[in-house]
Design brief:
Blueprint: E1 4-12, H1 15-26, H2 31-38, E2 49-54, H3 60-66, E3 75-80, E4 83-92
Antiparallel strand pairs: 1-2, 1-4, 3-4
Length: about 90
């Protein structure tokens, strides 16, 4: 059976902004509020919620991070062709 996960993410163009957001999150900022305010991905409107997806559905760098980073902790920045992602994995199996 394919591995699946659910995650939130914030997508921004600049690495410096991604690092700034990560630092705010580490100090207790609300992930979904920051996603709504800053994410350039359409998922930002939903607090960065990507829903459930299978391993291999996302671009390789993002996929690798989602299936290896700690759960429930903001992780990043992860660079892809889309920009810089801060990822929070809600669950995976």
């Amino acid at each position: 059976m394919a591995k699946t996960a659910a995650a939130l993410h914030i997508l921004v163009k600049e690495e410096a902004q991604a690092k700034s957001l990560l630092s705010q999150l580490e100090k207790g900022a609300n992930f979904q509020q920051l996603a709504k305010k800053h994410s350039t991905c359409p998922s930002g409107r939903n607090g960065g919620d990507l829903g459930e997806f299978r391993k291999g559905q996302m671009v390789p760098a993002f996929d690798k991070a989602v299936f290896s980073c700690p759960l429930l902790q903001p992780y990043g920045p992860v660079k892809t062709a889309f920009g810089y992602h801060i990822i929070k994995v809600l669950w995976r199996n």
